[in-house]
Design brief:
This protein is of the alpha+beta class and about 650 residues long. It is built from 25 helices and 16 strands.
Length: about 650
């Protein structure tokens, strides 16, 4: 128990942290066998979580503040480097001032993977707790979020009069890491994946909410708790009784499917020299993003032919490229079609490629060029023509921008229709668009200007999606994006004028193919470029996530890039035994390496990278950002060079 001067000290600390100084303790909760049963009914583990759900969140041996027999227990999952966690401090003090001994707060550690200083800060707090000063260190850390470096942590320990030798021994023992991992595992289980997250007598409340949000739940739980006490439940057993029939875990993500946002008409600009079929003055323009190796794209071809027959010159179809990174022959096929386009035979090559999707090797593509009567020498020379490659890259960038990250994705006057939908789905949209176009022409809009006018008036508005397909993915930024490299493994100086960030997958063959181009970038540009690595393991590569974690485990010992090379050099040998062998080869501390392989923080790191990549428009690997500009796929060195030179010229 803390009292007297210590109590005053805690209250003073609350002004800068969230400390509120009353009884401090650790303890385990257990239900009394004779206690009456609470009114809560067990939750269906597969049922989506609701605001009324009670979660069974044990207190365990976590540090707590407040009486053990408080009627309301708030379990907090927090991160000492998280600014939102520090912002909720004054609210927690207000809760204490309002409810006093009716409320207890339990602190659990959830250092997020992108807060590099948070794990050690948590260890220091726990080590301080071993010396009876958990909450004093807790307040120091939240008051000093701008500097949680190892030297700063030692300084805070000294200021609190702690024994640094005991802290070092505690950290070396691994006890703190184990406690943090247990808290993180519990956080994942109950769905506390962000910070701060609170469970008020088992009721989840996420984020740095205002006092009123806490007050509403606390008041409801106080009433319920007092009712239990009136029925004979001892105050010591109230929390255990309230949560005992609660749900053990949050439902899996697949059962918490978010509502899809409504579809919106995209302002899909028409690009010069895009292959097109149909009248230039069509009332309806369909812009298709497609991949010659995608089986679903081939299925939509007959539907588009039926549209052409049905509507004639009222509809035009434009073809744009979105070669997916996991289709190894999609990019060569795209180039083959555009080289044929230079000789006026795009659609003939288009048909050849879709008819022969399993025969897209270089020799096959050349054979199709001969069969179509092309000038083969010119066709071969055009395959790597800068303007041709630039146009395909432009298609990919625009596809990401408008949400066409999967194939096929088609826009009917900007209205998205996703997947190989039947003719009827297209007909519903086309008929509406023809009616709209004819209405505009009656108002005096020239037929040639109909498409532009529709996008001007209707672009960005919600539209019906008769196909029933998923709504558009959020549009990627129209310009360069900001990619945070603060915690990424780096090669080069962090302040280099060119920041090259690659999202990659150690099991992806195309990722290994792009590495020589990146190495050439480093060789040619030297200190002008810093290279950062981000993880984007694809779901159909079973060894990609374990390999990513292995690379980060090596990163903790300063040998990320050495492990990176090992993994890419041995893409067919990515088991745990293989990882341990590589660790030995690299001279790592194998015991530490194996412990880190099981650290949930590294798995969370990989997931964070993946989520960030998807947000930035990544939909396959490799995906590279050069000063925020996306370059998709295993592009050759000239593609990197073109963007890098442009960026350097901007800075000169």
């Amino acid at each position: 128990m803390k009292s007297g001067a210590a109590f005053v000290g805690f209250l003073f600390a609350a002004a800068v942290g969230f400390g509120f100084g009353y009884a401090v303790g650790t303890g385990k909760q257990g239900a009394s066998p004779s206690a009456p049963v609470a009114d809560n009914k067990p939750s269906d583990p597969g049922k989506p979580a609701t605001a009324e759900d009670i979660f069974r969140v044990p207190v365990g041996t976590s540090f707590s503040k407040g009486p053990a027999d408080a009627l309301v227990t708030i379990v907090e999952f927090s991160d000492f480097q998280c600014p939102f966690c520090s912002r909720v401090g004054p609210t927690l003090k207000q809760i204490h001032d309002t409810y006093k001994n009716d409320v207890r707060v339990v602190f659990k550690h959830q250092p997020l993977p992108f807060h590099q200083q948070a794990p050690l800060a948590s260890e220091y707090a726990l080590a301080a707790g071993e010396q009876g000063k958990f909450w004093e260190m807790h307040d120091k850390l939240f008051a000093s979020q701008s500097d949680l470096s190892p030297d700063a942590l030692k300084r805070y320990a000294s200021e609190l009069g702690l024994d640094q030798g005991k802290i070092d021994a505690f950290i070396e023992s691994g006890k703190g890491k184990k406690m943090i991992q247990e808290d993180q595992a519990l956080a994942q289980k109950v769905g506390a994946t962000g910070t701060p997250a609170f469970f008020i007598n088992g009721v989840k409340l996420s984020g740095a909410q205002p006092f009123a949000s806490f007050q509403k739940v606390i008041d409801e739980q106080l009433t319920k708790a007092k009712g239990l006490v009136s029925k004979g439940v001892s105050k010591n057993n109230v929390y255990a009784e309230v949560i005992k029939n609660g749900r053990d875990s949050a439902p899996p993500p697949s059962q918490e499917r978010p509502k899809q946002p409504p579809s919106t008409r995209q302002k899909v600009e028409l690009v010069e020299n895009t292959p097109a079929k149909g009248s230039k003055q069509a009332l309806v323009t369909i812009v298709e993003w497609s991949d010659f190796q995608c089986p679903f794209c081939s299925r939509v071809v007959p539907t588009l032919e039926q549209i052409n027959k049905e509507y004639g010159d009222k509809v035009q179809v434009q073809f744009r490229h979105q070669p997916l990174s996991f289709h190894n022959r999609a990019m060569p096929a795209a180039k083959a079609s555009m080289a044929a386009h230079k000789q006026g035979k795009f659609w003939e090559m288009h048909d050849k490629l879709f008819e022969n999707q399993k025969a897209l090797e270089d020799a096959d593509l050349e054979r199709y060029a001969k069969e179509l009567g092309l000038n083969v020498n010119k066709w071969k020379a055009d395959l790597e023509a800068p303007d041709l490659v630039a146009q395909i890259n432009k298609d990919v960038e625009d596809g990401n921008k408008f949400g066409a990250r999967g194939t096929p994705t088609l826009f009917v006057n900007g209205v998205p229709v996703r997947g190989a939908q039947p003719f009827a789905a297209f007909k519903t949209v086309i008929d509406k668009e023809i009616a709209l176009a004819e209405k505009l022409m009656k108002e005096g809009v020239a037929r040639k200007d109909v498409y532009a006018e529709i996008l001007k008036r209707e672009g960005g508005k919600t539209v019906d999606d008769p196909s029933g397909a998923p709504a558009a993915a959020p549009a990627a930024p129209t310009g360069p994006v900001t990619v945070d490299i603060s915690r990424a493994p780096l090669m080069g100086k962090k302040d280099a004028p060119i920041k090259l960030v690659t999202y990659s997958d150690f099991e992806c063959p195309f990722c290994s193919r792009v590495n020589p181009a990146i190495e050439q970038v480093k060789k040619e540009y030297g200190d002008k470029v810093v290279i950062a690595f981000k993880h984007y393991p694809l779901p159909f590569h079973p060894n990609a996530v374990p390999a990513a974690i292995a690379s980060l485990a090596a990163h903790r010992q300063g040998k990320f890039w050495e492990m990176h090379e090992k993994l890419f050099a041995n893409q067919k040998a990515l088991t745990k035994d293989d990882f341990v062998k590589y660790a030995k080869d690299l001279g790592l501390d194998v015991g530490k390496f194996e412990k880190d392989l099981a650290d949930p923080a590294l798995d969370a790191w990989v997931k964070q990278d993946t989520a960030e990549g998807s947000k930035n428009g990544v939909n396959g690997t490799p995906a590279t950002f050069i000063n925020g500009r996306l370059l998709s796929g295993a592009q050759p060195f000239p593609a990197f060079k073109a963007i890098i030179d442009e960026e350097l010229n901007k800075k000169s």
